[in-house]
Write a structure and sequence with these properties.
With about 210 residues, this protein is mainly alpha-helical. Helices cover about 70% and strands about 5% of the residues. It starts with 12 loop residues before the first helix and ends with a helix.
Length: about 210
Amino acid sequence: MKNKLKREKNKTMTEQVYEKLEDLIVFCEIEPGTVLTEAEISEMVGAGRTPVREALRLLANESLVNISRIGVLIPEMSGSTQLQLLEVRRAILQLCVKSAIDRLTELDKKSLQELVNIVDEQDDVEFLHWLKERHRILAKCSKNQFIYEELRNVQGLSHRFWYYYAKKDDHQKGKVLHKKILEAVIAQDKESAEKYVDDLIDYLEAFVRSHAI
């Protein structure tokens, strides 16, 4: 097996395979519309069939793959799907920031400030991983485990659409909007945080409409 995946001490093989496949799909290194077998995917990521199968189930929960008898399908891009996802993201992110502000600790503020401090330094690829960490930490601040699960379930497809079409100016605008949300949460300014969430989702909806085929 080529490029066999090496086990990391703090992650299971399933988690490693999931992250590798997520990156391949989100950054369209596996083209939308591609159909693959489990064996082909195992060869591609350098891992056994069991962790690949488990990772694919997780990705299917996030609609990043469709599993059927003919194989594993990478879904095509869909503007209408993106707008539906953003409708859900708006509601969940609003709930997340309100809950985080109500339950914020000094340790939470420190974690959020660390994210704010480094966001401007992130390149386009690093920004995706920053966003994933942002989702995790902000959801943790909400003290509601289900918020993180719901955010994760809608973010993968949104990120794929974004990275397929986004230009440098889009990435910069995205950083500014995400940063404003975190700064408002740190300040425990609920009104501003909710406004910045709406600003972000409004911007993303306009982005989708401008690129939807």
